[in-house]
Amino acid sequence: MTFEIPFGPQHPALEEPINFMFKIEEERVIDVKTRLGYVHRGIEKIAESRNYQQLVYLSERICGICSFAHTLCYSQTVEELLGLEVPERAKFIRTILAEMERIQNHYLWLGLTAKEMGFETLFMYAWRDRETIIEMLDMISGKRVNYGVNTIGGVRRDIAESTIERIEKSLEYLEKRAEHYTRVCTKDPSILKRTVGVGILRPREARALCAVGPTARASGIARDVRADEPYAAYGEIPFKVVTYRGCDVASRMYVRIDEIKESIRIIRYALKKMPEGPIRVKVPTRVPEGEAVSRVEAPRGENLHFLKSNGSDKPERWKIRAPTLANLLSLCRMLIGVNLADVPVVIAGIDPCIACAERVALIDAKTKRREIWDGKDLWRYANEWYRRKYGF
Amino acid sequence: MRRSELRRQLRIRARDIIVKRERRFAVNVDEKSLKRVIRRLMRMDNYTHLSTITALEVGSEIEVIYHFAFTDAMVSVKIRISKDDLLLPSIVDLIPGAALYEREIHDLFGVEFEGNPDLSPLLLPDDWPEGVYPLRKWWSAERINAKLGGKR
Protein backbone atom coordinates (compact mmCIF):
# COMPACT_ATOMS: atom_id res chain seq x y z
CA MET A 1 0.00 0.00 0.00
CA THR A 2 1.32 3.43 -0.89
CA PHE A 3 0.86 6.41 1.35
CA GLU A 4 1.46 10.03 0.57
CA ILE A 5 2.72 11.98 3.51
CA PRO A 6 3.20 15.73 3.52
CA PHE A 7 6.01 16.53 5.92
CA GLY A 8 6.14 20.16 6.92
CA PRO A 9 6.14 23.12 6.31
CA GLN A 10 5.79 22.99 10.08
CA HIS A 11 7.88 20.31 11.69
CA PRO A 12 10.18 19.87 14.70
CA ALA A 13 12.82 17.84 12.91
CA LEU A 14 13.83 20.87 10.95
CA GLU A 15 13.68 24.38 12.26
CA GLU A 16 12.86 25.72 8.82
CA PRO A 17 9.65 25.83 6.79
CA ILE A 18 9.96 23.43 3.91
CA ASN A 19 7.49 20.89 2.67
CA PHE A 20 8.39 17.33 1.70
CA MET A 21 5.77 15.19 0.01
CA PHE A 22 6.74 11.61 0.74
CA LYS A 23 5.40 8.63 -1.06
CA ILE A 24 5.88 5.63 1.20
CA GLU A 25 5.35 1.95 0.80
CA GLU A 26 4.94 0.26 4.16
CA GLU A 27 7.87 1.77 6.07
CA ARG A 28 10.03 2.83 3.13
CA VAL A 29 10.14 6.16 1.39
CA ILE A 30 9.94 5.56 -2.36
CA ASP A 31 9.66 9.11 -3.66
CA VAL A 32 9.93 12.62 -2.32
CA LYS A 33 9.16 16.09 -3.65
CA THR A 34 10.05 19.39 -2.04
CA ARG A 35 8.33 22.72 -1.90
CA LEU A 36 9.97 25.91 -0.66
CA GLY A 37 8.91 29.51 -0.30
CA TYR A 38 7.07 29.57 3.02
CA VAL A 39 9.45 32.19 4.32
CA HIS A 40 10.54 33.73 1.04
CA ARG A 41 11.37 37.25 2.11
CA GLY A 42 12.29 38.69 -1.26
CA ILE A 43 15.71 39.82 -0.05
CA GLU A 44 17.04 40.03 -3.62
CA LYS A 45 14.18 42.37 -4.52
CA ILE A 46 14.59 44.52 -1.41
CA ALA A 47 18.31 44.83 -2.20
CA GLU A 48 17.61 46.76 -5.39
CA SER A 49 16.22 49.65 -3.34
CA ARG A 50 18.94 49.76 -0.65
CA ASN A 51 22.45 51.16 -0.77
CA TYR A 52 25.58 49.10 -0.37
CA GLN A 53 26.13 49.97 3.29
CA GLN A 54 22.57 49.02 4.21
CA LEU A 55 23.01 45.70 2.45
CA VAL A 56 25.75 44.70 4.88
CA TYR A 57 23.06 44.63 7.55
CA LEU A 58 20.56 42.90 5.29
CA SER A 59 23.06 40.19 4.36
CA GLU A 60 23.74 39.63 8.04
CA ARG A 61 20.08 38.70 8.41
CA ILE A 62 19.86 36.15 5.59
CA CYS A 63 20.71 33.44 8.09
CA GLY A 64 20.86 33.53 11.87
CA ILE A 65 23.53 30.87 12.21
CA CYS A 66 25.91 31.52 9.33
CA SER A 67 25.45 35.29 9.31
CA PHE A 68 29.19 35.86 9.21
CA ALA A 69 29.63 33.79 6.05
CA HIS A 70 26.98 35.84 4.26
CA THR A 71 28.38 39.25 5.21
CA LEU A 72 31.86 38.04 4.32
CA CYS A 73 30.69 36.85 0.93
CA TYR A 74 28.79 40.07 0.26
CA SER A 75 31.65 42.32 1.40
CA GLN A 76 34.04 40.44 -0.85
CA THR A 77 31.91 41.08 -3.94
CA VAL A 78 31.70 44.81 -3.22
CA GLU A 79 35.41 44.99 -2.45
CA GLU A 80 36.14 43.31 -5.75
CA LEU A 81 33.98 45.82 -7.64
CA LEU A 82 35.69 48.69 -5.84
CA GLY A 83 39.12 47.20 -6.44
CA LEU A 84 39.94 47.34 -2.74
CA GLU A 85 42.54 45.38 -0.89
CA VAL A 86 41.49 44.59 2.66
CA PRO A 87 44.19 45.08 5.35
CA GLU A 88 46.03 41.90 6.34
CA ARG A 89 44.90 42.03 9.95
CA ALA A 90 41.27 42.27 8.88
CA LYS A 91 41.71 39.16 6.75
CA PHE A 92 42.98 37.23 9.76
CA ILE A 93 40.16 38.47 11.97
CA ARG A 94 37.67 37.40 9.30
CA THR A 95 39.24 33.95 9.19
CA ILE A 96 39.17 33.58 12.97
CA LEU A 97 35.52 34.61 13.24
CA ALA A 98 34.47 32.47 10.29
CA GLU A 99 36.03 29.44 11.98
CA MET A 100 34.48 30.29 15.35
CA GLU A 101 31.15 30.42 13.58
CA ARG A 102 31.83 27.01 12.09
CA ILE A 103 32.55 25.55 15.54
CA GLN A 104 29.38 27.15 16.87
CA ASN A 105 27.31 25.77 13.99
CA HIS A 106 28.74 22.25 14.17
CA TYR A 107 28.07 21.97 17.91
CA LEU A 108 24.55 23.17 17.29
CA TRP A 109 24.17 20.58 14.54
CA LEU A 110 25.56 17.80 16.71
CA GLY A 111 23.06 18.65 19.43
CA LEU A 112 20.10 18.78 17.06
CA THR A 113 21.01 15.52 15.37
CA ALA A 114 21.39 13.85 18.77
CA LYS A 115 17.93 15.13 19.66
CA GLU A 116 16.51 13.65 16.45
CA MET A 117 17.95 10.32 17.54
CA GLY A 118 16.24 10.67 20.90
CA PHE A 119 19.61 11.07 22.60
CA GLU A 120 18.77 14.14 24.64
CA THR A 121 21.72 14.00 27.00
CA LEU A 122 24.10 14.48 24.10
CA PHE A 123 21.93 17.33 22.90
CA MET A 124 22.26 19.08 26.25
CA TYR A 125 26.02 18.52 26.43
CA ALA A 126 26.66 19.72 22.89
CA TRP A 127 24.67 22.87 23.45
CA ARG A 128 26.40 23.53 26.75
CA ASP A 129 29.75 23.38 24.96
CA ARG A 130 28.44 25.58 22.18
CA GLU A 131 27.84 28.20 24.83
CA THR A 132 31.62 28.49 25.33
CA ILE A 133 32.26 29.54 21.75
CA ILE A 134 29.25 31.85 21.70
CA GLU A 135 30.66 33.60 24.75
CA MET A 136 33.93 34.11 22.90
CA LEU A 137 32.08 35.55 19.90
CA ASP A 138 30.17 37.77 22.30
CA MET A 139 33.42 38.92 23.86
CA ILE A 140 34.90 39.91 20.49
CA SER A 141 31.85 41.36 18.78
CA GLY A 142 29.45 42.26 21.58
CA LYS A 143 26.77 39.96 20.20
CA ARG A 144 25.97 36.27 20.45
CA VAL A 145 24.52 35.99 16.93
CA ASN A 146 24.58 38.39 13.94
CA TYR A 147 27.97 39.70 15.03
CA GLY A 148 28.01 42.87 12.94
CA VAL A 149 31.77 42.57 12.57
CA ASN A 150 32.15 42.53 8.80
CA THR A 151 31.90 45.65 6.77
CA ILE A 152 32.92 46.68 3.28
CA GLY A 153 36.67 47.26 3.43
CA GLY A 154 37.50 45.30 6.56
CA VAL A 155 36.12 44.55 10.00
CA ARG A 156 34.64 46.75 12.71
CA ARG A 157 36.04 45.00 15.78
CA ASP A 158 39.60 44.17 16.63
CA ILE A 159 40.74 41.16 18.64
CA ALA A 160 42.58 42.66 21.61
CA GLU A 161 45.74 41.13 23.04
CA SER A 162 44.04 40.63 26.39
CA THR A 163 41.28 38.45 24.97
CA ILE A 164 43.58 36.04 23.13
CA GLU A 165 44.44 34.19 26.33
CA ARG A 166 40.77 33.61 27.11
CA ILE A 167 40.08 32.44 23.57
CA GLU A 168 42.92 29.95 23.80
CA LYS A 169 41.67 28.60 27.08
CA SER A 170 38.21 28.02 25.67
CA LEU A 171 39.68 26.40 22.55
CA GLU A 172 41.53 23.96 24.76
CA TYR A 173 38.28 23.01 26.46
CA LEU A 174 36.42 22.67 23.15
CA GLU A 175 39.15 20.47 21.72
CA LYS A 176 38.92 18.15 24.70
CA ARG A 177 35.16 17.99 24.27
CA ALA A 178 35.46 17.29 20.54
CA GLU A 179 37.74 14.35 21.34
CA HIS A 180 35.12 13.14 23.79
CA TYR A 181 32.37 13.39 21.15
CA THR A 182 34.48 11.45 18.67
CA ARG A 183 34.69 8.67 21.26
CA VAL A 184 30.97 8.81 22.00
CA CYS A 185 29.87 8.89 18.37
CA THR A 186 32.15 6.07 17.23
CA LYS A 187 31.41 3.77 20.19
CA ASP A 188 27.87 4.34 21.39
CA PRO A 189 25.71 1.50 20.04
CA SER A 190 22.48 3.51 19.85
CA ILE A 191 24.15 6.28 17.81
CA LEU A 192 25.72 3.74 15.48
CA LYS A 193 22.41 1.95 14.98
CA ARG A 194 20.67 5.18 14.06
CA THR A 195 23.33 6.61 11.75
CA VAL A 196 25.54 3.98 10.09
CA GLY A 197 24.25 3.11 6.64
CA VAL A 198 21.33 5.52 6.96
CA GLY A 199 20.68 8.15 4.28
CA ILE A 200 23.19 6.99 1.70
CA LEU A 201 24.48 9.47 -0.88
CA ARG A 202 26.98 7.85 -3.25
CA PRO A 203 29.91 9.96 -4.53
CA ARG A 204 28.60 9.78 -8.09
CA GLU A 205 25.21 11.07 -7.01
CA ALA A 206 26.77 13.79 -4.89
CA ARG A 207 28.77 14.97 -7.92
CA ALA A 208 25.80 14.88 -10.29
CA LEU A 209 23.56 16.70 -7.82
CA CYS A 210 26.22 19.34 -7.07
CA ALA A 211 26.32 18.70 -3.32
CA VAL A 212 28.45 21.10 -1.28
CA GLY A 213 30.04 21.32 2.15
CA PRO A 214 30.04 18.55 4.75
CA THR A 215 27.34 16.73 2.76
CA ALA A 216 29.74 16.29 -0.17
CA ARG A 217 32.76 15.69 2.04
CA ALA A 218 30.99 12.85 3.87
CA SER A 219 30.64 11.17 0.47
CA GLY A 220 34.38 11.30 -0.05
CA ILE A 221 34.50 14.41 -2.25
CA ALA A 222 37.14 16.89 -1.11
CA ARG A 223 35.17 19.96 -2.12
CA ASP A 224 35.98 22.97 0.01
CA VAL A 225 36.05 26.61 -1.12
CA ARG A 226 38.67 27.41 1.52
CA ALA A 227 41.11 25.10 -0.27
CA ASP A 228 39.93 25.54 -3.87
CA GLU A 229 39.72 29.29 -3.86
CA PRO A 230 41.38 30.69 -0.74
CA TYR A 231 39.74 33.89 0.47
CA ALA A 232 40.50 35.98 3.58
CA ALA A 233 43.67 34.50 5.12
CA TYR A 234 43.08 30.85 4.25
CA GLY A 235 45.86 30.95 1.65
CA GLU A 236 48.41 31.47 4.42
CA ILE A 237 47.13 28.92 6.89
CA PRO A 238 47.81 25.19 6.55
CA PHE A 239 44.77 23.00 7.12
CA LYS A 240 43.37 19.81 5.78
CA VAL A 241 40.03 19.16 4.14
CA VAL A 242 38.22 16.52 6.18
CA THR A 243 36.57 13.76 4.15
CA TYR A 244 34.93 10.46 5.04
CA ARG A 245 33.84 7.72 2.70
CA GLY A 246 30.86 6.33 4.57
CA CYS A 247 28.28 8.33 2.55
CA ASP A 248 25.84 8.08 5.49
CA VAL A 249 24.66 10.16 8.44
CA ALA A 250 27.48 8.77 10.60
CA SER A 251 30.07 10.12 8.15
CA ARG A 252 28.35 13.50 8.11
CA MET A 253 28.69 13.48 11.88
CA TYR A 254 32.39 12.52 11.85
CA VAL A 255 33.17 15.12 9.18
CA ARG A 256 31.67 17.84 11.35
CA ILE A 257 33.35 16.73 14.56
CA ASP A 258 36.71 16.56 12.79
CA GLU A 259 36.07 19.96 11.26
CA ILE A 260 35.62 21.37 14.76
CA LYS A 261 39.12 20.13 15.61
CA GLU A 262 40.50 21.48 12.34
CA SER A 263 38.86 24.88 12.96
CA ILE A 264 40.43 25.03 16.41
CA ARG A 265 43.84 24.47 14.81
CA ILE A 266 43.17 27.19 12.22
CA ILE A 267 42.16 29.69 14.91
CA ARG A 268 45.25 28.92 17.00
CA TYR A 269 47.51 29.39 13.99
CA ALA A 270 45.76 32.59 12.90
CA LEU A 271 45.92 34.09 16.41
CA LYS A 272 49.67 33.47 16.47
CA LYS A 273 50.41 34.80 12.97
CA MET A 274 47.99 37.73 13.00
CA PRO A 275 49.92 40.83 11.80
CA GLU A 276 49.61 44.28 13.37
CA GLY A 277 48.01 47.12 11.47
CA PRO A 278 44.74 48.76 10.54
CA ILE A 279 41.56 46.69 10.38
CA ARG A 280 39.58 48.59 7.77
CA VAL A 281 39.91 51.04 4.93
CA LYS A 282 37.57 53.84 3.92
CA VAL A 283 35.24 53.07 1.06
CA PRO A 284 33.27 55.29 -1.33
CA THR A 285 29.47 54.98 -1.36
CA ARG A 286 29.23 54.70 -5.14
CA VAL A 287 30.39 51.52 -6.76
CA PRO A 288 31.65 51.52 -10.38
CA GLU A 289 29.83 49.48 -12.98
CA GLY A 290 30.73 45.81 -13.07
CA GLU A 291 30.00 42.26 -11.99
CA ALA A 292 31.55 40.11 -9.30
CA VAL A 293 31.12 36.58 -8.01
CA SER A 294 32.35 35.56 -4.61
CA ARG A 295 32.31 32.23 -2.82
CA VAL A 296 32.74 31.44 0.86
CA GLU A 297 32.74 28.12 2.66
CA ALA A 298 29.93 28.63 5.15
CA PRO A 299 29.54 26.01 7.92
CA ARG A 300 26.91 24.26 5.79
CA GLY A 301 28.78 24.45 2.50
CA GLU A 302 29.55 26.72 -0.39
CA ASN A 303 27.88 30.09 -0.29
CA LEU A 304 27.77 32.15 -3.49
CA HIS A 305 26.98 35.81 -3.98
CA PHE A 306 26.75 37.48 -7.38
CA LEU A 307 26.61 41.25 -7.60
CA LYS A 308 26.05 43.47 -10.61
CA SER A 309 26.44 47.20 -10.10
CA ASN A 310 25.30 50.03 -12.34
CA GLY A 311 27.50 52.87 -11.11
CA SER A 312 25.03 54.23 -8.55
CA ASP A 313 24.96 53.58 -4.81
CA LYS A 314 22.44 50.75 -5.22
CA PRO A 315 23.05 47.37 -6.85
CA GLU A 316 21.43 46.35 -10.12
CA ARG A 317 21.16 42.71 -9.10
CA TRP A 318 22.29 40.78 -6.07
CA LYS A 319 21.98 37.03 -6.22
CA ILE A 320 22.45 34.84 -3.18
CA ARG A 321 22.77 31.09 -3.26
CA ALA A 322 22.90 29.62 0.23
CA PRO A 323 24.30 26.10 0.71
CA THR A 324 21.02 24.45 1.65
CA LEU A 325 19.50 25.03 -1.80
CA ALA A 326 22.48 23.28 -3.33
CA ASN A 327 22.05 20.31 -0.99
CA LEU A 328 18.28 19.90 -1.26
CA LEU A 329 18.34 17.58 -4.26
CA SER A 330 20.99 15.46 -2.56
CA LEU A 331 18.75 15.31 0.48
CA CYS A 332 15.84 14.07 -1.66
CA ARG A 333 18.12 11.38 -3.03
CA MET A 334 19.19 10.32 0.48
CA LEU A 335 15.59 10.09 1.64
CA ILE A 336 14.60 7.58 -1.02
CA GLY A 337 14.78 4.13 0.49
CA VAL A 338 15.01 5.13 4.14
CA ASN A 339 12.54 4.16 6.84
CA LEU A 340 9.92 6.67 7.86
CA ALA A 341 11.45 6.51 11.33
CA ASP A 342 14.81 7.65 9.92
CA VAL A 343 13.45 10.66 8.05
CA PRO A 344 14.13 13.22 10.83
CA VAL A 345 17.72 12.17 11.30
CA VAL A 346 18.45 12.12 7.55
CA ILE A 347 16.96 15.57 7.08
CA ALA A 348 19.00 16.83 10.01
CA GLY A 349 22.04 15.25 8.33
CA ILE A 350 22.47 17.99 5.74
CA ASP A 351 22.01 20.67 8.40
CA PRO A 352 19.09 22.30 6.60
CA CYS A 353 18.53 26.00 6.99
CA ILE A 354 15.11 26.72 5.59
CA ALA A 355 12.85 26.98 8.75
CA CYS A 356 10.17 24.71 11.56
CA ALA A 357 7.68 22.01 10.89
CA GLU A 358 5.07 21.50 13.52
CA ARG A 359 2.82 18.73 12.24
CA VAL A 360 2.64 15.90 9.78
CA ALA A 361 -0.53 14.82 8.00
CA LEU A 362 -0.81 11.15 7.19
CA ILE A 363 -3.18 10.33 4.35
CA ASP A 364 -4.26 6.80 3.62
CA ALA A 365 -4.01 6.53 -0.15
CA LYS A 366 -7.05 4.26 -0.39
CA THR A 367 -9.49 5.85 2.00
CA LYS A 368 -8.01 9.37 1.74
CA ARG A 369 -8.27 9.45 5.50
CA ARG A 370 -6.06 12.12 6.94
CA GLU A 371 -4.39 11.93 10.31
CA ILE A 372 -2.65 14.99 11.57
CA TRP A 373 0.47 14.24 13.54
CA ASP A 374 2.20 16.97 15.34
CA GLY A 375 5.96 16.98 15.64
CA LYS A 376 5.97 15.22 18.97
CA ASP A 377 3.95 12.34 17.51
CA LEU A 378 6.42 11.66 14.73
CA TRP A 379 9.30 12.00 17.10
CA ARG A 380 7.64 9.61 19.53
CA TYR A 381 6.84 7.25 16.69
CA ALA A 382 10.45 7.23 15.50
CA ASN A 383 11.89 6.56 18.93
CA GLU A 384 9.25 3.94 19.79
CA TRP A 385 9.98 2.16 16.53
CA TYR A 386 13.66 1.89 17.36
CA ARG A 387 12.96 0.87 20.93
CA ARG A 388 10.72 -1.93 19.74
CA LYS A 389 13.17 -3.06 17.12
CA TYR A 390 16.40 -2.94 19.08
CA GLY A 391 15.17 -2.80 22.65
CA PHE A 392 16.95 0.42 23.65
CA MET B 1 43.20 27.83 -15.75
CA ARG B 2 44.34 29.85 -18.72
CA ARG B 3 42.42 31.58 -21.46
CA SER B 4 44.19 29.64 -24.21
CA GLU B 5 43.25 26.37 -22.58
CA LEU B 6 39.63 27.41 -22.25
CA ARG B 7 39.54 28.41 -25.89
CA ARG B 8 41.14 25.20 -27.11
CA GLN B 9 38.83 23.00 -25.05
CA LEU B 10 35.59 24.81 -25.76
CA ARG B 11 36.36 25.51 -29.43
CA ILE B 12 34.60 28.87 -29.58
CA ARG B 13 35.52 32.30 -30.93
CA ALA B 14 38.21 34.13 -28.97
CA ARG B 15 36.08 37.25 -28.53
CA ASP B 16 33.47 35.20 -26.69
CA ILE B 17 35.89 34.49 -23.88
CA ILE B 18 36.40 37.33 -21.42
CA VAL B 19 38.99 37.27 -18.67
CA LYS B 20 37.65 39.35 -15.80
CA ARG B 21 40.57 38.87 -13.48
CA GLU B 22 42.71 36.06 -12.22
CA ARG B 23 40.50 32.96 -11.72
CA ARG B 24 37.40 34.59 -13.25
CA PHE B 25 36.29 33.88 -16.81
CA ALA B 26 33.13 34.64 -18.72
CA VAL B 27 32.01 32.81 -21.84
CA ASN B 28 29.29 34.17 -24.10
CA VAL B 29 27.16 31.57 -25.84
CA ASP B 30 23.93 31.42 -27.81
CA GLU B 31 21.01 29.01 -27.55
CA LYS B 32 22.47 26.63 -30.10
CA SER B 33 25.88 26.29 -28.51
CA LEU B 34 24.81 26.39 -24.84
CA LYS B 35 24.64 22.68 -24.20
CA ARG B 36 27.63 21.89 -26.34
CA VAL B 37 29.81 24.36 -24.44
CA ILE B 38 28.56 23.08 -21.08
CA ARG B 39 29.26 19.49 -22.08
CA ARG B 40 32.82 20.46 -23.00
CA LEU B 41 33.29 22.47 -19.81
CA MET B 42 32.29 19.47 -17.76
CA ARG B 43 34.95 17.36 -19.41
CA MET B 44 37.74 19.79 -18.54
CA ASP B 45 40.28 19.10 -15.82
CA ASN B 46 39.56 20.51 -12.37
CA TYR B 47 35.82 20.83 -13.02
CA THR B 48 33.94 20.45 -9.75
CA HIS B 49 30.31 21.49 -10.02
CA LEU B 50 27.66 23.94 -11.14
CA SER B 51 27.45 26.48 -8.33
CA THR B 52 24.21 28.12 -9.34
CA ILE B 53 22.32 29.81 -12.15
CA THR B 54 21.62 33.55 -11.99
CA ALA B 55 19.13 35.45 -14.11
CA LEU B 56 18.99 39.22 -14.51
CA GLU B 57 17.31 41.78 -16.65
CA VAL B 58 19.28 43.70 -19.28
CA GLY B 59 16.96 46.10 -21.11
CA SER B 60 14.62 44.06 -23.27
CA GLU B 61 16.53 40.87 -22.65
CA ILE B 62 17.04 38.41 -19.83
CA GLU B 63 20.58 37.30 -19.17
CA VAL B 64 21.06 33.86 -17.69
CA ILE B 65 24.44 33.11 -16.13
CA TYR B 66 25.61 29.57 -15.30
CA HIS B 67 28.31 29.70 -12.63
CA PHE B 68 30.67 26.76 -13.03
CA ALA B 69 33.18 26.06 -10.30
CA PHE B 70 36.63 24.68 -10.98
CA THR B 71 39.28 24.07 -8.36
CA ASP B 72 41.32 26.86 -9.97
CA ALA B 73 38.69 29.20 -11.44
CA MET B 74 35.06 30.19 -11.82
CA VAL B 75 33.63 30.20 -15.33
CA SER B 76 30.41 32.13 -16.01
CA VAL B 77 28.59 30.92 -19.09
CA LYS B 78 26.34 33.76 -20.23
CA ILE B 79 23.41 33.70 -22.56
CA ARG B 80 20.96 36.46 -23.47
CA ILE B 81 17.42 35.81 -24.64
CA SER B 82 14.72 38.21 -25.71
CA LYS B 83 11.79 38.75 -23.34
CA ASP B 84 9.41 37.93 -26.20
CA ASP B 85 10.76 34.42 -26.50
CA LEU B 86 11.88 33.18 -23.12
CA LEU B 87 12.80 29.64 -23.98
CA LEU B 88 16.05 27.90 -23.11
CA PRO B 89 17.11 24.28 -23.35
CA SER B 90 17.24 22.72 -19.88
CA ILE B 91 20.58 21.30 -18.74
CA VAL B 92 19.02 18.89 -16.25
CA ASP B 93 19.97 15.94 -18.47
CA LEU B 94 23.65 16.98 -18.21
CA ILE B 95 23.61 18.18 -14.60
CA PRO B 96 20.72 16.87 -12.51
CA GLY B 97 21.70 19.33 -9.79
CA ALA B 98 20.50 22.25 -11.94
CA ALA B 99 16.82 21.34 -11.50
CA LEU B 100 16.06 23.64 -8.57
CA TYR B 101 18.02 26.58 -9.98
CA GLU B 102 16.02 26.40 -13.20
CA ARG B 103 12.78 26.18 -11.28
CA GLU B 104 13.75 29.23 -9.26
CA ILE B 105 14.42 31.28 -12.42
CA HIS B 106 11.19 30.03 -13.94
CA ASP B 107 9.35 31.34 -10.87
CA LEU B 108 11.02 34.70 -10.58
CA PHE B 109 11.74 35.65 -14.21
CA GLY B 110 9.40 33.50 -16.28
CA VAL B 111 12.07 31.75 -18.33
CA GLU B 112 10.87 28.40 -19.72
CA PHE B 113 13.37 25.54 -19.65
CA GLU B 114 12.62 23.01 -22.32
CA GLY B 115 13.30 19.52 -20.98
CA ASN B 116 13.03 20.23 -17.27
CA PRO B 117 10.49 17.66 -16.04
CA ASP B 118 9.15 19.73 -13.16
CA LEU B 119 8.69 23.48 -13.45
CA SER B 120 5.94 23.79 -10.83
CA PRO B 121 6.27 26.75 -8.43
CA LEU B 122 9.15 26.29 -6.02
CA LEU B 123 9.21 29.61 -4.18
CA LEU B 124 5.98 31.38 -5.11
CA PRO B 125 2.58 30.42 -3.68
CA ASP B 126 0.24 28.13 -5.64
CA ASP B 127 -2.28 30.93 -6.22
CA TRP B 128 0.29 33.40 -7.53
CA PRO B 129 -1.18 35.34 -10.50
CA GLU B 130 0.13 34.40 -13.90
CA GLY B 131 2.54 36.74 -15.60
CA VAL B 132 3.83 38.34 -12.39
CA TYR B 133 7.58 37.83 -12.27
CA PRO B 134 8.68 39.45 -9.03
CA LEU B 135 12.35 39.94 -9.81
CA ARG B 136 11.76 41.79 -13.08
CA LYS B 137 12.31 45.52 -12.73
CA TRP B 138 8.87 46.51 -14.03
CA TRP B 139 7.23 44.66 -11.13
CA SER B 140 7.96 47.12 -8.36
CA ALA B 141 6.77 46.26 -4.86
CA GLU B 142 3.79 48.62 -5.32
CA ARG B 143 2.72 47.00 -8.58
CA ILE B 144 2.95 43.51 -7.10
CA ASN B 145 0.93 44.64 -4.09
CA ALA B 146 -1.72 46.23 -6.30
CA LYS B 147 -1.93 43.08 -8.42
CA LEU B 148 -2.39 40.95 -5.34
CA GLY B 149 -5.22 43.25 -4.23
CA GLY B 150 -3.34 44.72 -1.30
CA LYS B 151 -2.97 41.30 0.27
CA ARG B 152 0.45 40.17 1.35
Q: Could you walk me through the main structural features you see in this protein, from its secondary elements to its overall organization?
A:
The complex is a heterodimer of chains A (392) and B (152). Chain A is an alpha+beta fold and 392 residues long. Chain A folds into 2 domains: 42-357, Cytochrome-c3 Hydrogenase, chain B (Orthogonal Bundle), CATH 1.10.645; 365-390. In chain A, 49% of the residues lie in helices and 17% in strands. Chain A contains 14 helices and 12 strands. A 5-stranded antiparallel sheet of chain A has the order 4-3-1-11-12. A 3-stranded antiparallel sheet of chain A has the order 7-8-9. In chain A, strand 5 (150-151) and strand 6 (154-155) form a beta hairpin. In chain A, helix 4 runs antiparallel to helix 5 (120-141), helix 4 (88-116) packs antiparallel against helix 11 and helix 5 packs antiparallel against helix 6 (161-187). Chain A is globular and about 65 Å long. Chain A starts with a strand and ends with a helix. The model of chain A is unreliable at 355-369 (pLDDT under 50). By secondary structure, chain B is α/β, with parallel strands linked by helices. Chain B has one domain: NADH:ubiquinone oxidoreductase Nqo5 subunit (Beta Polymerase, domain 2, 2-Layer Sandwich). Helix content of chain B is 24%, strand content 31%. In chain B, the strands form 2 sheets. Chain B has a 5-stranded mixed sheet, with helices on one face. The radius of gyration of chain B is 17 Å and the shape is elongated. Chain B starts with a helix and ends in a 5-residue tail after the last helix. The mean pLDDT of chain B is 89.
